[in-house]
């Protein structure tokens, strides 16, 4: 039972990351005026999935083993991954933003190392 719980937690993190990544990519690829339309279109599969999931889950548990539910996404992955690789064209990050990102990360790491208690114990 513990394995199932850990697996569902990991699956939940992955699903949440996918939802967030879709919204970030749409925000990057569309204008402000188009954004609401495309975000609405991307909500349709989620709504259909919420409606169909109890029925599909019941069919799987009746006619197949419940373990097949973990494998049902693999065909979608096999179709979706090549489509993303072929058709997804993102704009590159501008160099000034990239340098800001690196300097912000290094500053945050420096502050974190200075604020640790072990660092202050060395100086006392």
From TrEMBL:
Residues 1-124 form the Major facilitator superfamily (MFS) profile domain. It comes from Penicillium coprophilum. It is a multi-pass membrane protein. The chain crosses the membrane at residues 38-62, 68-88. Its main location: membrane. This is Major facilitator superfamily (MFS) profile domain-containing protein. GO terms for cellular component: plasma membrane. PANTHER family: MAJOR FACILITATOR SUPERFAMILY (PTHR23501), TRANSPORTER, PUTATIVE-RELATED (PTHR23501:SF156). The keyword Membrane applies. The keyword Iron-sulfur does not apply. InterPro entries: MFS (IPR011701), MFS_dom (IPR020846), MFS_trans_sf (IPR036259). It comes from the Eukaryota. It is found in: Membrane. GO terms for molecular function: transmembrane transporter activity. Keywords: Membrane, Transmembrane, Transmembrane helix.
């Amino acid at each position: 039972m513990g394995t199932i719980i850990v697996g569902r937690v990991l699956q939940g993190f992955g699903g949440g990351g996918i939802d967030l990544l879709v919204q970030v990519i749409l925000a990057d690829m569309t204008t402000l005026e188009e954004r609401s339309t495309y975000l609405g279109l991307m909500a349709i599969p989620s709504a259909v999935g919420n409606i169909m999931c109890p029925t599909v889950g019941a069919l799987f548990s009746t006619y197949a083993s419940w373990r097949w539910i973990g494998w049902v996404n693999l065909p979608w992955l096999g179709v979706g991954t090549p489509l993303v690789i072929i058709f997804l064209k993102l704009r590159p990050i501008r160099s000034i933003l990239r340098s800001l990102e690196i300097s912000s990360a290094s500053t945050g790491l420096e502050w974190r190392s200075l604020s640790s208690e072990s660092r202050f114990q060395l100086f006392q």
